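Backbone geometry:

***
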Amino acid sequence: MTKRHNFDASLNELRKQLIEMGGKVEQAILKSVQSLKDGNQELARTVIADDPAVNAMEEHIDEIGTRLIATQQPVAKDLRRILIAFKMASDLERMADLAVDIAKVTLRIGEEPLIKPLVDIPRMAEIVQQMTRESIEAYVDENVDLAYRMAKMDDDVDHLHSQILRELFVFMVDNPKTVNQSLLLCFVSRYLERMADHATNIGESVVYLVRGQRPDLNA
């Protein structure tokens, strides 16, 4: 087995791990927001309990990449592929942590009825899930056009975030009894907005991988 063949096999393992990690993050986002929408505390606890598995995947990706750098001494684009895998794993791990934060909001609200049916927050979550999926796809396929789509979807998430904050501010002014839950829902919106930023970071990394220059898609 040639040195290049070994290297390519390890790179494929990195890609496989990133795809699997992205899928777990997608599920964490889905479950955390669903737990909030339904008041499902058991589902929220599942999100929290599953988080160490995501952390372990980041560590495994770091181990594969570190071993590749130490043993294969890659240069140019091959080196960028590995360094970007480190960065992507870090972004995904942070997204999973933010999903845990949403699950913890579900637990804090507990049995208290929601002040309003959730519409925009689940919509934000859907966009962020799509961004997560497509950012990984962009990396695997080295698809710059798909990577640049992150900026448009990030703008959509930012718009929804601003809309949610305005609406919740009105709730707090009109009825001070809603302040605590309104603030918690503001936090959830902010967590989703931050997830979109992390997915956009992955898009930037893909552009850097292919073109050797990093754009600012969060601008």
User: Anything to note?
Assistant: Helices lie at 3-38, 41-72, 76-109, 120-141, 144-174, 179-211.
